[in-house]
Amino acid sequence: MKYGIAIFPGKELQDLANSYRKRYDPKYALIPPHITLVGEFNADNDEIKAISDKLQKVASHYHSIAIKVLKISTFQPVNNVIYLKIEQNSNLEDLHTEIINTIGVTHEHPFIPHVTLGQQLSNDEHLDLYSSLRMRTFSHGETADRFHLLYELENGSWTVFETFRLGKDE
């Protein structure tokens, strides 16, 4: 089964992202706006139990993660994805690195925290949307206190398998 690990931002940021995603992201109906910590990986039932236990331990090492959006960006020329860029911070980077190292999955791309607004865009759509959005000022901050282990359903949608609250259990 396919799994992934993500942070879901708060309602305000999700609403902002969805205002673009419903038109420009073909995966709009398959998963809410999110910050991917670990992309797709495969695991069976026994493996996912061990992974879940390891993720619980990782979550206990962090108390909260600052999420700041300051601008729009794109992955072009690699692909026509437009996203809200999440400002890098050591807690977010450390969480990503610890999860990757702890569960032993590999990742093919560098970690660039973001919330996708549009993907699989034609060159013209990409140019139009990016030209329009990069003129706007984006300033949003919030704090994340949890991350989620997700799994893919048969219809291609993603749902939460388990949620991990950051911080030590009290």
Sequence-ordered SSE layout with sheet pairings:
Blueprint: E1 2-7, H1 11-24, E2 35-42, H2 45-59, E3 65-74, E4 82-86, H3 90-103, E5 114-118, H4 123-133, E6 140-144, E7 146-152, E8 158-165
Antiparallel strand pairs: 1-2, 1-7, 3-4, 3-6, 4-5, 7-8
Comma- or semicolon-separated keywords:
single chain, 170 residues, alpha+beta, four-stranded antiparallel β-sheet, 4 helices, 32% helix, 32% strand
General description of the model:
With 170 residues, the protein is α+β, with helices and mostly antiparallel strands. The chain has helices at residues 11-24, 45-59, 90-103, 123-133; strands spanning 2-7, 35-42, 65-74, 82-86, 114-118, 140-144, 146-152, 158-165. The strands form 2 sheets. Strands 2-1-7-8 form a 4-stranded antiparallel beta sheet, with helices on one face. A 4-stranded antiparallel beta sheet has the order 5-4-3-6. A hairpin with a 7-residue loop joins β3 (65-74) and β4 (82-86). α2 (45-59) packs antiparallel against α3. The radius of gyration is 16 Å and the shape is globular. The N and C termini lie far apart (33 Å). The model has no long low-confidence stretch (mean pLDDT 94).
